[in-house]
Specification:
The protein is α/β, with parallel strands linked by helices. 34% of the residues lie in helices and 20% in strands. It starts with a strand and ends with a helix. It holds the Pfam family Glyco_tran_WbsX.
């Protein structure tokens, strides 16, 4: 059994101007606009949360990427999992990954996680208008496989037992998933990309759960444990209806305890028939992006974070291939990041490093 735990932090490549953000939200928009405009929405709500020594960076600058590489090594992060946006051949926010994959200096490995869903405007205060629709067909599959094969052959792309890991968000959205993914595997091989280690995200909601990853064509799942796990469907529906109503009438955001992420993680490991990889959450507050439609995990502190890491590692150590995901490296508008915070009381990154080294 391999005793080494590989730590993988989710990475958002949103922090640079691009033409689609200009079109949707206004010229020059980046995620920093959401971060800077955040305000407290209830007593004790800590907003805005601003970046520390890295500042309001621009991911087009190589110097910024190298600073992130240096921090990742200091914080014990082995790999960045970049969110990958693919809409029938149209790609967005891929610039930072394309730049990082070419860097020769020391730093973390890289992998991709397909943000497999349509882009809508609802979380930004717009109507539920579809901005970019996620579709699936055999032509785009071959184009996608060719692109992935090229990435998998890059020296910095993470290898797990001679396989390239590829994560897919919301796996239940893919029609005829098993056949689709079998063809994806085959076409990646045809294009010279070798074998894939396919990971599906598991969430606590009825539409997010993956009870058996192999039945859908995956090798494993990774827990997305931000949401609350309520095993009774009637109680869960009542809970969701309650908060949905409150948010619609402006009585949000939803507030829940940070330690609920630990209970949801345990539920994933107990309920899934197959390999489950653990996730530790570095806080959550997406009100900068979603306002009163958002969710805040209260009680995120050093002691609670250390406990969450301890439980996640204990669960992950049961696996032969040990992958500990961290959510996230730089999701500033969703309040989960390892990067330094302005006037922080304690360092998330340093605490993570010390905890995994103990």
């Amino acid at each position: 059994m391999n005793n080494k735990i590989i730590s993988i932090a989710y990475y958002l490549g949103q922090f640079h101007p691009n033409h689609l953000n200009d079109e949707f939200w206004g010229a020059g928009f980046t995620e920093w606009h959401n971060v800077a405009k955040a305000r407290p929405l209830f007593p004790g709500h800590n907003q805005p949360i601003l970046p520390g020594n890295l500042g309001f960076y621009d991911l087009r600058n190589k110097e910024t990427l190298l600073e992130q590489f240096d921090l990742a090594q200091r914080f014990g992060v082995d790999c960045f999992c970049h969110w990958h946006y693919w809409f029938e051949g149209q790609r967005i926010l891929n610039g930072p990954f394309d730049s990082m994959i070419k860097i020769k200096e020391n730093g973390p490995a890289l992998m991709l996680g397909w943000a497999n869903e349509s882009w809508t405007g609802i979380w930004h205060g717009m109507s539920n208008k579809i901005l970019l629709e996620q579709k699936y067909n055999r032509q785009e599959l071959d184009e996608h496989a060719r692109l992935l094969a090229n990435y998998f052959n890059q020296e910095r792309y993470l290898k797990l037992e001679n396989k390239s890991p590829f994560l897919i968000y919301k796996p239940n959205l893919i029609p005829d998933s098993k056949n689709y993914l079998e063809e994806l595997r085959e076409r990646v091989k045809i294009h010279g990309g070798g074998d894939i280690y396919l990971i599906a995200t598991w969430g606590p909601g009825a539409k997010e759960r993956v009870n058996n990853p192999e039945e859908l064509g995956y090798d494993a799942v990774v827990a997305n444990n931000v949401g609350a796990y309520i095993s009774n469907d009637l109680l869960r529906k009542a809970y969701l209806s309650y908060w949905s109503f409150r948010k619609k009438v402006g009585l949000g955001p939803e507030v829940r305890k940070y330690q609920s992420t630990v209970e949801t993680l345990k539920a994933a490991h107990e309920s899934v028939q197959g390999v489950v990889h653990s996730t530790v959450v570095t806080g959550w507050d997406n009100t900068p992006r979603s306002g009163r439609r958002g969710l805040v995990l209260n009680g995120f502190d050093k002691k609670g974070f250390q406990h969450a890491i301890k439980i996640a590692m204990e669960l992950e150590n049961k696996n032969n291939l040990k992958l500990l995901f961290v959510k996230s490296w730089n999701e500033w508008a969703e309040g989960n990041m390892m990067e330094p915070i302005f006037r922080e009381d304690w360092s998330v990154g340093a605490t993570f490093r010390n905890s995994i080294d103990d």
